[in-house]
Write a structure and sequence with these properties.
11 helices; 423 residues; Nitrilase/N-carbamoyl-D-aminoacid amidohydrolase; 21 strands; alpha/beta; 2 domains; globular; seven-stranded mixed β-sheet
């Protein structure tokens, strides 16, 4: 029976494993495009109950697969309650991989301030049934690995203390220094790649000024656009942060809690990728990275993406679950499907495009369905006739548009419809 392994986990005290496996089973497809969860909901009897106290006895209980099969949603909620009391949120271990019999998952505590959107109010979603957790499978039908990063030990208190505000200030960069990409179009090829910028020193100056401005304005998260910060510049910026941290302590002029230092093409094992990284502004330590998977076409040439070794990674912190995607991965194909399934609280998107219409449509959908606040830092394509800036979608009806330079948008964590800007 499908519930045999769930019963085995419960009977041996492996409650997170049981919760993760039940969530996997609920998402299994059945005929007509429906899922197992749909049938569970139709057969659900609210009058019945399985209390988490049943799972809290001194000795292990014995439950049969048939008992779980009869009222699976009651067991789902009981396990959700029990794991909350045993493991979290204060004792949660989000870095642990839970092996649920299908593969690896991570069982993450949720916060009442996050995980909003229609999923919490609509049956047909696990978010409707889970009060305390979200379960993140590390594998998926798309074949793209998923991972959950945590703030490194020694940085969590510093970062979470600064993020733990009722209003989060988000900085979105649009560079106006007119620095051009050094693009390569190999002869007799169908692709292009970017090997650098025509003036790295000016871009370094611009990037540092934006970070300083963001720090003065008490920004919590700062995002720079796609193809604006080379690997060399990223290394130089983080080296400067490290030096300032040593010389001035933890409140220096660049110490913005979370900074996405754009993205750029770089070589990994002799193959090209488009890679972005988020760092802690304290000393530049890496939080998590992102590889682009869906290439853009420019001048009838395909962006040269030969590898994307970094899993789709999200960061677990005091503000919930934060993901990152580069440009088209937000709204196209397999990466977009995975991002939607993760029910992220925040999605940070370095982008380079002359048309952000698809970005805006997907951001609106993600906010309305999952409550995901989508932040797009956009730079127009090379030789564009007009500037094209980014936006933050944290309102049901419209996105808050950004201006050139640095735009700061405030998002009230208990009211995502707040729309305040400061340039």
């Amino acid at each position: 029976m499908p519930m045999d392994k769930v019963a085995e986990f419960i009977n041996t005290g492996c409650y997170r494993e049981a919760l993760a496996r039940l969530c996997r089973l609920a998402q299994e497809p059945i005929e007509d495009g429906r899922r197992v969860l749909d049938d569970w909901e139709l057969a659900h009897h609210p009058a019945e109950i399985v209390s988490f106290e049943v799972l809290s006895r001194d000795q292990y209980i014995t439950v049969t697969a048939a008992e779980i099969e009869r009222v699976p949603l009651h067991w789902l909620r009981a396990l959700d309650d029990h794991c909350h009391h045993v493991y979290g949120p204060d004792n949660a271990m989000p870095q642990d991989i839970v092996v649920d019999g299908f593969g690896g998952s991570k069982v993450l505590p949720t916060s009442p301030r996050f995980g909003g959107g229609a999923r919490k109010q609509q049956m047909g979603n696990l978010s409707y049934w889970l009060k305390h957790h979200r379960v993140v499978p590390l594998d998926n039908p798309q074949g793209i690995p998923v991972d959950v990063a945590v703030i490194p030990k020694g940085y969590a208190e510093w970062t979470n203390r600064r993020l733990g505000k009722e209003i989060l200030r988000i900085g979105i960069v649009h560079f106006t220094d007119d620095i051009r990409l050094d693009m390569v179009f190999p002869t007799n090829s169908t692709f292009f790649y970017c090997q650098g910028l025509d003036d790295e020193e000016t871009r370094l100056h611009s990037a540092l000024e934006h970070i300083r401005h963001a720090k003065r304005k008490q920004v919590h998260m700062l995002i720079m656009p796609e193809l604006t910060i080379t690997p060399n510049l990223r290394s130089r910026i983080t080296d400067i942060m490290m030096q300032l941290s040593i010389e001035q302590g933890d409140d220096h002029e660049l110490s913005v809690p979370i900074i996405v230092l754009g993205s750029f093409h770089e070589r990994v094992n002799e193959k090209w990728r488009n890679h972005a990284e988020a760092v802690v502004g304290l000393d530049g330590v890496k939080l998590f990275g992102c590889d682009k998977r869906k290439s853009v076409t420019f001048r009838r040439k395909k962006e040269c993406l030969q590898c994307s070794p970094t899993p789709v990674t999200c960061l677990y912190s005091s503000i919930g679950l934060t993901g990152m995607a580069i440009c088209k991965d937000l709204f196209e194909g397999e990466p977009a499907a995975i991002l939607q399934s993760l029910s992220l609280d925040w999605l940070l998107v370095p982008s380079m495009s002359d048309n952000t219409g698809p970005h805006e449509a997907e951001a609106r959908r993600l906010f309305n369905i999952n409550g995901t606040v989508v932040v797009v830092a956009n730079q127009e394509m090379p030789h564009a006739s007009a500037r094209k800036t980014g936006f933050v979608h944290h309102h049901r009806k419209k996105a808050a548009r950004c201006d050139a330079g640095l735009t700061i948008i405030e998002v009230a964590l208990n009211d995502r419809d707040t729309d305040m800007t400061d340039n």
